[in-house]
Design brief:
The radius of gyration is 17 Å and the shape is globular. Helix 1 crosses helix 10 and helix 5 crosses helix 10. The strands form 2 sheets. A 5-stranded mixed beta sheet has the order 5-4-6-8-7, sandwiched between helices. The chain has 228 residues and is α/β, with parallel strands linked by helices. The protein folds into 2 domains: 107 residues, Rossmann fold (3-Layer(aba) Sandwich); 107 residues, Rossmann fold. It is built from 10 helices and 8 strands.
């Protein structure tokens, strides 16, 4: 039976659509039949993940579990989630006995692919940064993570992510580049764009010869490896 990819999306809708576009663009297919069959569950009604994490509640969890169950019922062999903060509930979701790619593992693979070593800059939502979604796994794997300052998070990064959700990409790009340059100046040998909204505004792969690792493309690459 043909393998089928499940995409747990809607967080936000534009990031999920971008994942699908990049998956299709990066699949080495010469005809329709060589593309990966997938099922997209796109539910934008999932409560805001960052807000729940900062409030210490699990309001998104029931929505996430419902989505995983739907994709499992659709006979998906693997699930990807193009939302970083949703991965704080990863351990709860994998209890439903369907393989789910952890987005930080996919980013770690991407860092290895570009030969990034030493200090890594990490950008993301306030919850992703404050609660250490990337720092724990990447530090354990041998990298040393640095993150934007609280002032940069409060006044630049999170507002820029909010701008993307409202459709303002150009202003968000300028804001993100300020923080990327700041992380590079502090010694980052690569910068992780650890929010799937950020690549909607920042679509370049390097900055001043420093690799920019976006979590959408890393997740795409992980999916493609599974479906070789």
């Amino acid at each position: 039976m043909t393998k089928r990819l499940g995409i747990l999306g809607g967080m936000g809708p534009a990031a999920s659509a971008e994942f699908v576009n990049r998956l299709i663009a990066q699949t080495p297919a010469t005809c329709d039949q060589e593309h990966i069959p997938f099922v997209l569950w796109n539910n934008p009604q999932v409560p805001d993940r960052s807000t729940s994490l900062r409030n210490g509640d699990d309001r998104p969890l029931s929505f996430l579990l419902e989505g995983v169950q739907i994709l499992k019922a659709a006979r998906c062999d693997l699930i990807v989630i193009p939302c970083n903060t949703a991965h704080f509930w990863y351990d709860n979701m994998v209890k439903l006995k369907v393989p789910i790619v952890h987005i930080v593992d996919s980013v770690a693979d991407a860092l290895r692919d570009v030969g990034a070593t030493g200090t890594i800059g990490v950008m993301g939502t306030q919850a992703t940064v404050e609660l250490g979604l990337y720092q724990y796994k990447l530090n354990k794997a041998g990298w040393s993570c640095i993150v934007p300052s609280k002032e940069e998070m409060d006044n630049i990064v999170q507002p820029a992510i909010d701008l993307i959700k409202s459709g303002d990409m150009s202003q968000a790009y300028d804001m993100f580049m300020v923080v990327i340059d700041s992380l590079i100046a502090r010694g980052a040998r690569a910068v992780v764009l650890g929010c799937t909204e950020i690549p909607l505004a920042v679509n370049q792969n390097t900055r001043n010869a420093v690799p920019l690792i976006n979590s959408i493309d890393s997740l795409v690459k992980s999916a493609l490896k599974h479906f070789k």
